[in-house]
């Protein structure tokens, strides 16, 4: 069985979001240009360098990074450069993660920033850098430095340029991932990549959001952190946390519109949710999009822990691949979750069909048809308490094993 | 690629252990008889009921159980019956886990005990019961009760009977698993099953140890708990914890020998280690036996947490399947472990060959040959502190996905 990729992903929160190759992505908001080229980092000859530039008037920026304690050089550099809340340009490459290269890796990342700084005429500390690809190989610096001039030369505000940037950050992604939310008075655009959220050897999830709203770094950070928590941090393809994960939000202020925090939060959440859904639909080896909602435990945090434990259970994920309504695996997985539950009164449903009530199977439990592409698993842990959380995951398929058993060699 | 099973597993601690189909297993110590039959629980017609009886003079017993909060009916019943430190007979079945069947499941387990109690003429509270197989289906009670008389009639102290019992508890196991340690003055025997340690829908790991040593329940429990912690609890095939896991130790005192706690501990550890190694070698879809040793963190407990996190990482496990020395995945996995580490000074070796030093690759890291069946991964987290722990796992193969995507349907 081969993995069928999902070509369309819908945003599930926050109203209408435009997506797809023609939507513009990071260049949809006023004040942004982008470009993407084939510099030659990848042996495949596919595009591998991208650039996003904020033409202002404001250069506000915020970021969220991987929680992994082993972090890649570009994360170290970008963390440092974004500390003052201002970034003018983001330089991205795929094909090499520049992770686990020690001090020389940091120096390579800084040299890339310096070269772009010279070319754009902006301070080096206003450059962010992101890398994605194999861990442990030094960046091919001649290739990277040779790519700077054509990248800057190719900068454009056309939708084609947005797509070129989104395409150049792909690794094992099969489709580019973009989203645009047009709110009253301002726009938020985004591009992202990542198909093993978060698959470490891929050094995997990168995202760049842009907006023409006039906001402070504090507003940007609050919106991005809240949205990431609800979207990217609840997408769990394989339980593995990358060394390189970075999501940036750049704000140009070019709309002149000053949104409330609530307006900004809603728009940022909407595009993050769309990008997360697109990542789920393009996940490594995916044949099923699985959403797991947990209720009836000690509040939202407990529900999230329990949903994540189910979503990471290989036996559950294999059952989803087999369209197998094996609710026993849901119970066995959630039974080890360190959260409040009534072990005698757990309810499980697949796509709205109750398959387990009071921790026992319903008579027709094994007749549920899970042959479709989307499976919603709902688990009520029976304590009667409120709060719920949903985690998105995928099945565990032959293609996932195939893709990940032959990556570096 | 099909999974090659490992036909021979060596004990790695505690001196010489006999194993293999002819070793006697649970009937090797004096005072024990066993039997195994095909009752008809499994559609395949394979053996599915087993019995182990302690003929004394002592009927000492101890047990360790699953930590899952969703526990199967036989666990509930056996926990109750073993509370006084005495068990005469263990009734086991494969093909049905009797898990998640609520109160009726407990009543089914009790009826099985009562039937055996009548047949053997011993109190019902001296009977332990273990089930393994699919979760959520009621036991076929006519078949179970019909199996009691032939099981009792077939009881024997011959090695053939030990093997018959070990065979009748298999599910997706391909080989029976037995071990015997002949210590000075006493003997410890064992049988076990489990190939997705701990794969919940299989309701998976069962073990019965027997000894002719003259020991107290407290000695038995101390030895079993310590040995389980070092062996079964450090075997982690897929991170999933069964609802049925049970390991029992029965002591007949028939040797008349009273060992010290240390002598008992060593012998029990040796057979548990052998059974654990046999389970690893027969794990679902296994093509590689992988041992992960972590040092240089905050002591043994931290080392165990870190080793387990690496051993559960699907990307790492896929790399092992591909014989891929992708040390970046080891670093990315261990980087999220909540333990002491120096992120700039991590060392990784595969089969004694250093592939990563100071969190960076060595020049010949990608040339290491991992095509053999056994891979030892050593990770030094760089804090300079003592303590180490080793976890056994396997690779993640196509066969694992295949076996587990079509189990209940």
Automatic annotation (TrEMBL), chains A, B:
- Active-site residues are 204 (nucleophile)
Q: Where does it mainly reside? A: cytoplasm
- EC number(s) per entry: 2.3.1.35, 2.3.1.1
Q: Which UniProt keywords apply?
A: Acyltransferase, Amino-acid biosynthesis, Arginine biosynthesis, Autocatalytic cleavage, Cytoplasm, Multifunctional enzyme, Transferase
CDD domains in the record: OAT
Reactions this protein catalyses: L-glutamate + acetyl-CoA = N-acetyl-L-glutamate + CoA + H(+); N(2)-acetyl-L-ornithine + L-glutamate = N-acetyl-L-glutamate + L-ornithine
| Site features described as Involved in the stabilization of negative charge on the oxyanion by the formation of the oxyanion hole, chain residue numbers | 132-133
What compartments host this protein? Cytoplasm
User: Which ranges does the record mark as transmembrane?
Assistant: none
Q: Where is this site: Cleavage?
A: 203-204
Which GO MF terms does the UniProt record name? Answer: L-glutamate N-acetyltransferase activity, acting on acetyl-L-ornithine as donor
Describe which pathway this protein belongs to, using the record's wording.
Amino-acid biosynthesis; L-arginine biosynthesis; L-ornithine and N-acetyl-L-glutamate from L-glutamate and N(2)-acetyl-L-ornithine (cyclic): step 1/1; Amino-acid biosynthesis; L-arginine biosynthesis; N(2)-acetyl-L-ornithine from L-glutamate: step 1/4
User: Record's superkingdom?
Assistant: Bacteria
Fetch the InterPro entries from UniProt.
Answer: Arg_biosynth_ArgJ (IPR002813), ArgJ-like_dom_sf (IPR016117), ArgJ_beta_C (IPR042195)
- Residues given in the record as substrate binding sites: 171, 193, 204, 284, 404, 409
SUPFAM superfamilies named among the record's database cross-references? DmpA/ArgJ-like
To which protein family does this belong?
Belongs to the ArgJ family.
Q: Tell me the subunit arrangement.
A: Heterotetramer of two alpha and two beta chains.
- What job does this protein perform? Catalyzes two activities which are involved in the cyclic version of arginine biosynthesis: the synthesis of N-acetylglutamate from glutamate and acetyl-CoA as the acetyl donor, and of ornithine by transacetylation between N(2)-acetylornithine and glutamate.
Question: What name does the UniProt record give this protein?
Answer: Arginine biosynthesis bifunctional protein ArgJ
Gene designation per UniProt? argJ
């Amino acid at each position: 069985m081969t993995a069928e990729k999902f070509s369309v992903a819908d945003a599930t929160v926050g109203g209408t979001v435009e997506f797809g190759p023609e939507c513009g992505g990071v260049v949809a908001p006023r004040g942004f240009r982008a470009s993407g080229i084939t510099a030659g980092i990848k042996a495949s000859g596919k595009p591998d360098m991208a650039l996003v530039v904020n033409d202002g008037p404001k250069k506000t920026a915020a970021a969220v990074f991987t929680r992994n304690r082993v972090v890649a050089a570009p994360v170290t550099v970008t963390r440092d450069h974004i500390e003052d809340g201002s970034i003018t340009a983001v330089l991205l490459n795929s094909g090499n993660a520049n992770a686990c290269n020690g001090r020389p890796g940091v120096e390579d990342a800084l040299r890339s920033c310096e070269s772009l700084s010279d070319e754009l005429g902006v301070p080096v500390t206003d450059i962010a850098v992101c890398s994605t690809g194999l861990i442990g190989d030094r960046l091919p610096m001649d290739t990277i430095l040779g790519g700077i001039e054509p990248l800057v030369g190719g900068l454009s505000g056309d939708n084609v340029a947005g797509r070129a940037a989104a395409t150049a950050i792909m690794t094992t992604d099969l489709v580019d991932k973009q989203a645009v939310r047009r709110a009253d008075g301002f726009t938020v655009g985004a591009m992202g990549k990542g198909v093993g959220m978060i698959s470490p050897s891929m050094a995997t999830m990168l995202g760049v959001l842009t907006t023409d709203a006039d906001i402070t770094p504090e507003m940007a950070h609050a919106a991005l952190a809240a949205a990431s928590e609800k979207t990217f941090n609840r997408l769990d393809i394989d339980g593995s946390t990358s060394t390189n994960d970075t999501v940036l939000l750049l704000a140009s202020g070019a709309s002149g519109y000053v949104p409330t925090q609530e307006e900004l939060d809603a728009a940022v959440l909407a595009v993050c949710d769309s990008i997360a859904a697109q990542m789920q639909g393009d996940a490594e080896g995916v044949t099923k999009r699985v959403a797991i909602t947990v209720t009836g435990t000690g509040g939202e945090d407990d529900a999230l822990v329990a949903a994540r434990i189910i979503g990471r259970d290989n036996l559950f994920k294999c059952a989803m691949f087999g369209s197998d309504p094996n609710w026993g695996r849901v119970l066995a997985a959630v039974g080890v979750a360190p959260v409040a539950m009534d072990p005698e009164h757990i309810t499980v449903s697949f796509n709205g069909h109750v398959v387990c009530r009071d921790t026992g199977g319903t008579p027709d439990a094994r007749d549920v048809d899970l042959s479709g592409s989307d499976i919603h698993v709902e688990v009520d842990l029976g304590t009667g308490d409120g709060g719920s959380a949903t985690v998105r995951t995928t099945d565990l398929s032959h293609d996932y094993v195939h893709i990940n058993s032959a990556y570096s060699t």
